Amino acid sequence: MTPNPNGPAADDSVGDDPVGDDARAVVVRYVEAVRDGDAAMIRDSFTADAVWHYPGSLPISGEWRGRDRIVDDFLGGMAGRLQAGAPLLIELTDVIAEGPRVVATWTSRGTAANGEPYDNRCLGIFEVRDGRISSVREYADTDHVARVLFP
Cα-Cα-Cα-Cα dihedral of 105, 84, 116, 137, to 10°? Predict the structure, then answer.
């Protein structure tokens, strides 16, 4: 069979996993909300009991429990480390979904509050429940984060 250049091949699994497709859409929508600065959508993307794990030994490292702590303290605290008014460019580079689990990679580029360029590659393993993110395990270059955002 010759693949259709205008769409997926007949044996592609696109659309065969409605839970995975839905979970993928939830994560893509969340990353786009971060990119666009849509605070209401960011908050609405998480379950009330969500958990975010961030690696390393930074002041932000550890387990953040609850939507409000994730959005206000963790994400909000990171935003405070960036130059006010300067753009934060988020580019979603890969998304793989299977059932309620989504693995996404993205780049984050911006300017730190001290004027240093911030350019990081990140990976998140997301769990989605009832159309919202219930868990995130993020991996990033924490050495870069330490040098640029927590000098």
Answer: -30
Q: What is the pLDDT of residue 40?
A: 96
Under the banding of pLDDT at 50, 70 and 90, the label for residue 20 is low
* Alpha-carbon gap, residue 55 to 113, rounded angstroms: 22
Sheet of 101-111, strands arranged across: 62-65, 46-54, 132-140, 117-129, 101-111, 89-98
Whole-prediction pTM:
0.85
| Contact (Cβ atoms closer than 8 angstroms) between residue 32 and residue 99 | no
Return all residues near 136 (Cβ < 8 A) that are at least 6 apart: 50, 51, 52, 53, 124, 125, 126, 127
Measured CA to CA in angstroms, residue 129 lies from 13, 47, 58, 126 at distances of: 22, 8, 29, 10
- Look-up: residue for tokens 């009991």? 49
Q: Rounded to an integer, what distance in angstroms lies between the CA atom of residue 116 and that of residue 111?
A: 6
Integer CA distances (angstroms), 120 to 2, 60, 62, in order: 39, 16, 19
